[in-house]
Amino acid sequence: MEPQQSPSEPPNDRDVTIRAVRLDDCEQIAALVSLPGFRFGTLALPHRTPEDVRKRIESGSPADVGLVAVHDGTIIGNGGLTRFQGRRAHAASLGMGIHDDWRGRGVGSRLLNELLTIADDWLDLRRIELTVYVDNAPAIALYERNGFRVEGTHKVFAFRNGSYVDAHAMARLKP
What we know:
The chain is of the alpha+beta class. It has a domain at 16-130: Gcn5-related N-acetyltransferase (GNAT) (Aminopeptidase, 3-Layer(aba) Sandwich), CATH 3.40.630.30. The protein contains five helices and seven strands; from the N terminus they run βαααβββαβαββ.
């Protein structure tokens, strides 16, 4: 996939569509999660294959929600909710990421807003949890603007780019 040019202006509602993940998105999602900046903020290993992505999509529960942000036919962001089961059925974990060239342009806000709308208005989830690296200030600010609060810090959470990094455990309780 050829790198996309950074837009000169932030996208607006006409520029970006948020929709459900489809199986035919596997190749674009694999390319997205392999971008250095995207991967730096996640637990993904380098060089995800479309087959890896397909397996993950196919193995998801019907209660899971997977969304992508699309601009001119190109996936520029993805995110999802994984609902817990049993006595934790009121809660879900959230994960998301945005194309390196599209950060700071409102795509993450749009994607997060749609995920939270589904969680609140359709699934009646009471608690949304996530982990975010402590050095990812833009993501932490986005989550805090949307009601997430730091509940603790995981020390030596993950090995990333040759060293260990801490991560905050954050959660949002349904307003």
